[in-house]
Amino acid sequence: MLEGTGNDAVRRMLADDRASAGLGIELVEVTAGRAAARMTITSAMVNGHGIAHGGFVFTLADTAFACACNSYGPVAVAAGADITFSSHRPGKAMCSPRPRRKG
Questions:
Q1: Quick one: DSSP state of residue 76?
Q2: What is the number of other CB atoms lying within 10 angstroms of the CB of residue 13?
Q3: CA-to-CA distance for 5 and 27, rounded, in angstroms?
Q4: Do residues 99 and 65 touch, judged by C-beta distance below 8 A?
Q5: Are 42 and 90 in contact (CB under 8 A)?
Q6: I need a surface site. Which of 34, 65, 73, 101 has the fewest CB within 10 A?
């Protein structure tokens, strides 16, 4: 589901996103205003409680959110974001954010 004008903008953005690529973040789906991304939580990403460090989870969410925001076509950046953490253990983590409003 990576077709359309807005998705071309998302593809171009991700092609230059070395941080997301370095963490192995994969875009699973993108449609107008929605995106899903995933990454593998490795043992190096686990905190002292044995769960995924929030910084890595937020990075995954931020990448997916950027894809959702840019899925409309014009370049967009977020003015803010919030997240509710869940306890991810090593393995695959998935995130599907969407913007609350456009513009």
A1: -
A2: 17
A3: 16
A4: yes
A5: yes
A6: 101
Q: Where are the domains of the chain?
A: 5-95
- Extract the tokens encoding 44: 């190096």
CATH number assigned to the domain covering 5-95: 3.10.129.10
| Stretch 26-39: mean pLDDT | 89
CB count within 10 Å of CB 12 equals 12
Quote the tokens at residue 38.
Answer: 């995933």
Q: What is each CA distance from 1 to 8, 9, 26, 35, 92, in whole angstroms?
A: 12, 14, 13, 10, 20
In the prediction, which pLDDT does 5 show? 47
Is residue 98 over pLDDT 80?
no
**pLDDT tens readout for residues 46-82:** 999 888 888 998 999 999 989 988 888 778 887 777 7
Within 10 A of 59 (CB to CB), how many other CB atoms are there? 18
Q: Which tokens sit at 10?
A: 């998302």
Q: Any idea which residue has 């997301």 for tokens? A: 20
